[in-house]
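STRUCTURE REQUEST FORM
Protein name: YCII-related domain-containing protein
Source organism: Acaromyces ingoldii
Requested output: structure tokens
Priority: standard
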Amino acid sequence: MASSAGQPTQALRWLVRVPDHNTAESSQKRMSLQGEHKARLTEFKQQNPGTIQYGGPTLDEETQKPNGSFFVMRHGQGGFATSSDIRAWIEKDAYWKNGVWAGVLEIQLYQANTRPKAENDF
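Status: completed
Returned output:
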């Protein structure tokens, strides 16, 4: 959407949360599959720049150990059109296929205020 310099624009994004199974075995699997998981994400991000805006592990508040993953993804052109598209993509991940993730997806479409990047923004 067009905007005046510095004025916010509206953009649709997907917020995706995938909780882990709450077991010691799941934590061990997460660590052993981390390289494969990250390699897939790196390849996807290189082939689809800007589709994944943010992402990483969610953490248990007390232990600060991973208890799932989250992603903020672009919607529509240059991103995922539907929640079914996201599900299909998630189900190809090593964490999903090997039982790290609990088989539950929380997918929410939201509207984000964004603004053009200023020259001195990092």
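Reviewer notes: The domain at 11-113 is CATH 3.30.70.1060 (Alpha-Beta Plaits). The radius of gyration is 16 Å.
Form closed.
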